[in-house]
Design brief:
alpha/beta; Rossmann fold; 12 strands
Length: about 240
């Protein structure tokens, strides 16, 4: 689905990415790992069109492309769900689900929000990812962390995302809520979507990822298949900043 070749990005004298190769297959979960300053955030910013690469090529669904804004990336099917879950806490779930893309119906020359339809579709799309809510009118600020992530992810999929980039989706969640989010990622994968999972918690990502891409100070150290490694080995590679011998 996504292929990056020789991606390089510098900020003055700081080399944030250097000749990075990176790819994500269809219906695949890839763990993007590395310590602080490894280049994970810069890679995401380049993919989302926040900043252009200095060198390198990006292919998405078979087409060579460089996005010039997050809007272009989203329109093509790439969406980021950040740790804060991209939601407005003082608004209801259905309003968050359709914010900026509200549905309307016509009465003569007038247009009114189709609240009933948006409520129904919000709950229906959450059910598709195995999340049940009592009401779409519940404000986001009373939802659990896992439920907030579910609303943000379900919204992204409904509006055309093919590749989800999840930035620390399990940070500050309870054990139960973490299990919900990890289960949601597995469900998303079975539905045919792909995921880039960015996290510092190796054990969380190890439960759901198929492959791990490890960066250190802007350089890709290695790519590891899940069946060929362990969480402990991954942590040791990140700690050393090189592939273990």
């Amino acid at each position: 689905m996504l292929r990056v070749e020789g991606l390089t990005k510098t900020f003055g004298k700081v080399v944030a990415l250097k000749d990075v190769d990176f790819d994500v297959g269809y219906s695949e979960v890839v763990g993007l790992l590395g310590d602080n300053g490894a280049g994970k955030s810069t890679l995401v910013k380049v993919l989302m069109g926040v900043c252009p690469p200095d060198k390198g090529e990006i292919y998405f669904i078979g087409k060579k492309t460089i996005f010039h804004s997050p809007e272009e990336a989203r329109a093509s099917g790439i969406e980021v769900v950040y740790q804060g879950s991209n939601l407005i806490e003082t608004m209801s779930s259905w309003r968050n689900f359709f914010v900026g893309k509200e549905e309307t119906r016509n009465f003569g020359f007038l247009k009114f929000l189709d609240v009933s339809s948006m409520r129904k579709k919000t709950l229906g799309n959450l059910e598709k990812v195995k999340i049940t809510m009592k009401s779409a009118d519940e404000n986001v600020n009373i939802l659990s962390g896992g439920e907030r992530q579910s609303v943000a992810i379900s919204r992204a999929l409904y509006f055309g995302a093919k590749l989800l980039i999840l930035d620390e989706p399990t940070t500050a969640l309870s054990v139960k809520e973490t299990e919900k989010v990890l289960g949601l990622i597995e469900t998303v994968k079975t539905m045919g979507f792909s995921v880039i999972f960015i996290t510092h918690n190796i054990y969380h990502v190890f439960n759901v990822a198929d492959r791990f891409e490890i960066l250190d100070r802007g350089v890709k150290i290695c790519s590891l298949l899940k069946e060929n490694t362990t969480p402990e080995r991954i942590m040791e590679i990140i700690r050393r900043g090189r592939l273990d011998e």
